[in-house]
Amino acid sequence: MGTCRANSFSYTAKSGLEPESCEPGPFTLTYARNSTVQVNITCGDTDGCNAGAIPVPTVSPVPSGRQCPSCFAAGADHCKDVVPLACTSAEDHCVEFTGTITAGEITLPKAAAGCGSPGACVKRVGVRKYTQGVVDVLSRAECYPAPWAGGEL
């Protein structure tokens, strides 16, 4: 009998945003295969404003009875395999994003869909400029209340 283990990836970083790119607030996103992103953005424009700990939101394992279409396709401009994903209690919205991420001279298309907390709705179409030359461009950003499981996706 095999063991089923959820894929998990944890990444913690502090980065500066150009002032016009900063939209504060914590949020979580869960994509296909239980890939979860936990984010907390604080905005500041003074020396040392990024010092100290910035807590990230937790992800509850308690199902909410809602579901969203889900996928994650790094290096592709659309998702080929979209599957239903059971959302957890705090993630009661569906999110769908397409765009590109650029670091230095490397640009990759990306597409993703899944469950998100209400704070994830701050992600909008447009350009986000991070420090160290990282540019995140969203050409499509949708956020809407997650339907109850058993309904149409």
Task: Write a brief structural summary.
This protein has strands spanning 25-31, 35-41, 63-74, 83-88, 93-103, 106-116, 126-129, 134-145.
Task: Explain this structure.
- By secondary structure, the protein is an all-beta fold.
- Helices cover about 0% and strands about 45% of the residues.
- The chain is built from no helices and 8 strands.
- It has strands at about 25-30, 35-40, 65-75, 85-90, 95-105, 105-115, 125-130, 135-145.
- Strands 1, 2, 3, 4, 5, 6, 7 and 8 form an 8-stranded antiparallel beta sheet that branches.
- Strand 7 and strand 8 form a beta hairpin.
- The protein starts with about 25 loop residues before the first strand and ends in an 8-residue tail after the last strand.
Task: Using brief descriptors, characterize the structure shown.
about 150 residues, mainly beta, 8 strands, about 0% helix, disordered N terminus
